[in-house]
Amino acid sequence: MSDAKQSPRIQTGPAPGTADPNSGRPFFPLAVIELGTTAIRMTVGESDGRSELRVLEQLVHGVSLGKDTYTGGEIQRKTMQECIRVLRGYRRKLTEYQCNDPRSIRVIATSAIRESSNRLAVLDRIYIATGLVVEVIDDAEIARVTYQGIRPLLNEQVVESNDTTVVVEVGGGSTEVLVLRGKDILYSQPCRLGSLRLQQQFSTTAAPRSEFSRIMSGQIQRSLEPLLDIIPSGSNVQIITLGGDMRFTASLLNVEAGREGLRSIPISQLQSMLERLLPMPVDWIMQEFHIELSQAETLIPTLLTNLKLAELLQVEQLRITGFNLRDALLRGMLGSSQWSPDFRNQIVNSSLELARRCQVDLPQAIHVANLSVKIFQGLHAHHSMDSRCETLLYTAALLSRVGMFVGISGYHKHSFYLIQHSELFGLNSLDQTLVALVARYHRRATPRPSHEAFARLDRESRVIVTRLAAILRIADALDHTGTQRISDIECTIENNRLTVTPKRVAGDLSLERMELRRQVGLFEDTFGLEVMLRESGRQAFSR
Fold first, then answer.
1. Cα–Cα distance measured from residue 515 to residue 443, given in angstroms and rounded to the nearest whole number
2. Which of 120, 137, 154 is the last residue of a domain?
3. N or C: which terminus of the chain has fewer CB atoms within 10 Å of its end residue's CB?
4. pLDDT in tens, 328-384
5. What sign results for the dihedral spanned by CA atoms 329, 331, 333, 338?
6. Are 134 and 109 in contact (CB under 8 A)?
7. Sheet of 134-136, strands arranged across
8. C-beta of residue 372 within 8 angstroms of C-beta of residue 472
């Protein structure tokens, strides 16, 4: 596209589709297109299908989808037509790279489309005009991708000393904030403090431009002050700032943010840059720095937000990196960083925090969760579910009793509601629904088409919920008394039967055997296996 602002093409290896002379494996193209608040961006890369990924080219074209959404509530026809024109141009570029397989192209949209009242019409129009399927991603996935991209950049001193790292990205519609203590997530939540929102709000007031900084700073401070309650007192704090506006600002200060490692920018230099920009109208900024309107509008609000955060946290420099959402999503398409042990631990930590707030009996919840995983692993040959499903099961087991915080009667339904409406790091909206449903079905009624949330799922997701709920019912029955009489189990499958052998049994298991008989029906119907509890010196069949 001749009118799109392009970065230089980065070619670091063989042409797409050719073999790497070192590995002999053919490389194939991949692409991520992001329909953001102020621009449509595309990153094209290539990979050998394993760990190696090379970025070939990045394109960006300003299309202010967010301006329509945040002012009128829906995306206007003219903006939609411009969006389609840009996407058609990107499609031609992908053809040049021989990147036409839908499995190699991921198109995502963020808050500008997610919050528009006519988003379904927009998504359908894009598909009809370009053949591209747009996936509207939620804040949870953005937080997950951000964590996975930032985690390798934290040096060992920060991790070992449990220092605090605040990761902030000021987008057009919202500001994503991630707070880590060492390598663990303390806080992950967006706030409705986007650079374009701020710009639009100021433009609707009658205040003179000289009041721009004061009014906007006050609003930014009110939005960011709650973070002070999250930051552990006395800890060393560093701020890592993300986003194209801050990378552009860094380049104006002769600091180039590479894709690996972190570079530092003194707050004093950023403050001087802000003082230079504040008196300049948007059109002057465009002419002075040769940038598009969409970027010129958001530059000052983004810089103000980062400087106000640094002031609140008493930080003297910001750390910057070339990491961006599209690069991380490209790597995610390879599956190399999905559901890693470190990432799964962060999901569990977030779930434990919710369980603590709801006063769950944590020793029992953790014990049932561990039993669930043992059964899950013992059944692997019969379900072939992956580490994602194992994590969802473990999380559902931890949270299956949070509903007791509301009331004992029908607590499984309360659990469903609380899980659905809580902030759980790393789980997108679908994953969170699956966890909530598995927790809901750990007792009483089994999954039914008449249950609205279950019926809305696709077939694969319904199967996952049913299988995981069946496993959780068995694990829950094995600790029916809540006394952890069965400290551990071994699971084997023989003659169409799941045999559960307790280890280190403390006390009589009569109540556990009775509960197992009551709860085994869903498991037998789902897996086609009988369940036998085998104790030393005796055998107790569930049926």
1. 11
2. 137
3. C
4. 888 888 765 567 888 899 999 999 999 999 999 999 999 999 999 999 999 998 888
5. negative
6. yes
7. 5-6, 53-62, 39-47, 28-35, 105-109, 134-136
8. yes
Q: Which two tokens stand for residue 482?
A: 């809540």
What are the pLDDT digits (tens) for 394-453? 999 999 999 999 999 999 999 999 999 998 998 988 999 999 999 999 999 999 999 999
Residues 373, 315 share a domain:
no
| Beta carbons of 532 and 499 less than 8 angstroms apart | yes
The pLDDT of 139-164, averaged and rounded, is 84
SS3 sequence, 312-340?
HCCCCEEEECCCCHHHHHHHHHCCCCCCC
Which structural domain, as residue segments, surrounds residue 21? Answer: 5-137
| Amino acid of residue 293 | L
What confidence score (pLDDT) does residue 541 get? 52
DSSP secondary structure string for all residues of 184-231: EEEEEEEES--HHHHHHHHHTS---GGGHHHHHHHHHHHHHGGGGGTS
| CATH label of the domain that carries residue 39 | 3.30.420.40
**Residues 6 or more apart in contact with residue 503 via CB below 8 angstroms:** 486, 487, 488, 489, 490
Taking only the tens place, the pLDDT of each residue in 240-275 is: 999 989 999 999 999 987 666 789 999 999 999 999
Which tops the pLDDT comparison, 12 or 127?
A: 127
Domain end residue (candidates: 289, 324, 359): 324
Is there a single domain that holds both residue 168 and residue 69? no
Q: What is the pTM of this model?
A: 0.80
Q: Are residues 33 and 108 in the same domain?
A: yes
For residues 410 and 402, what is the distance between their CA atoms, to the nearest angstrom?
12
Task: Locate 157 and state its tokens.
Answer: 């001193």
Q: Which of 12, 27, 36, 55 is nearest to 328 (CA)?
A: 55
Other C-beta atoms closer than 10 Å to the C-beta of 251 total 13
By the 10 Å C-beta count (0-12 exposed, 13-18 middle, 19+ buried), 209 is classed as exposed
292 plus 399 within the same structural domain: no
